[in-house]
Structure formats: C-alpha cells, structure tokens
Write a structure and sequence with these properties.
Elements: H1 6-27, H2 34-44, E1 50-52, H3 53-62, H4 69-82, E2 86-88, E3 96-98, E4 104-110, E5 116-120, E6 144-149, H5 159-176
Parallel strand pairs: 4-6
Antiparallel strand pairs: 1-3, 2-3, 4-5
Helix pairs in contact: 1-2, 3-4
C-alpha cells in the first residue's frame, strides 16, 4: 500500500481539479489554455458567487501566477460568451459576473468614499407570486436581484468609512499641531 505524503496528495488533487476544469472548458468549446485554467480555478473554487476582474486579478497574483488584467477581462468575456458565467448589472463602476449559472441576489452599497461593496445573499430564494410574461419568442433565462443600499441619516457605521474618518481626523489633528 502506498503512503502518499501531504505534498503528493495536494499535487494529485490539483491534477484532478485541472483535469475537470480542462473538461469543463472543452465542453463549452473553449481551448484549455494555461490562463483559462488558472482563471477557472480561481472562479469556481471560491464560495462568493460574484466576481469582478480586479479582484480576480489580485487573487491570481496572490497565488503566484502572472497574468495581465487585460487577459483576465478577455477570459471573463469568453467565459460569459459561452455561458460559464453571467454578467450582472448593478450600476457600479465594476462589471460583476455571477459564477453560479442560476439566479443571483445581492446587496450593493457605495460608501462615502465611492467604494462599491457587494454582499451576496446566495442562501436567499425570492418568492415571486407573478412574473411578467415575456414577449413572444422569448423565455426568462434568469433573474438577478440587486438591492441598492444607502446609509440611514444616522451615523455611518461602515468599517471602510470609519477608517477613512479616523485618518481624516488624525490628519486634521496633525495640521493643528
């Protein structure tokens, strides 16, 4: 009986995953290039069903791979074109993609600094009593719900804004000294 070391196990596991991503890309009519396999691994191994190119670029770099942001955008475009992922509109500066091929629900929030934040609600299943009837020759392929949030008139409690406010207060204090 073979006694595999932990390193050998991880190599075997990675090889199995790469093979399944290769088969997935081939099934959708895409060539399984190194870049596409890397992006597929980053997209489909994550728990968050929403992704944007900049975050994906950072994740790829953190894993030790070098790839241009343009390649990331092109790969996402090709994946969306064949139906592996879906573009989701949310009126943000970044184009979001849903990695789950079913419906998606998420909150969208822009803080005081203009930074966009998304909060996935993947466990939530909306209850629709009656959907509009699509025009002749069309069917509803999926439904995306984006709930845009704004802060109440009370004090803003976003962690990013608290940090920004603390920096501003510190800068103002330094200027007074």
């Amino acid at each position: 009986m073979l006694n595999y070391t932990e390193k050998t196990r991880s190599i075997l596991e990675r090889t199995k995953q790469e093979k399944s991503y290769r088969e997935l890309l081939t099934h959708y009519g895409l060539r399984a290039t190194r870049q596409r396999l890397t992006v597929a691994a980053q997209i489909f191994d994550r728990t968050d069903p929403l992704i944007d190119a900049e975050t994906l670029y950072e994740d790829v770099a953190l894993c030790g791979n070098t790839m241009s942001l343009a390649t990331i955008y092109n790969t996402l475009h090709h994946f969306a074109k064949v139906g592996l992922i879906r573009p989701v509109s949310c009126h943000a500066q970044k184009q979001l993609y849903a990695t789950a091929r079913n419906n998606s629900v998420f909150f969208h929030h822009t803080d005081q600094n203009g930074q966009a934040h998304k909060i996935s609600m993947s466990a939530f299943t909306p209850n629709f009593k009656k959907l509009p009837t699509p025009p002749d020759g069309y069917v509803i392929s999926n439904i995306d719900i984006v709930i845009h949030l704004k802060t109440k008139e009370t004090k803003h409690e976003c962690a990013h804004c608290k940090l920004f406010q603390a920096i501003n207060n510190f800068s103002a204090h330094i200027k007074r000294i």
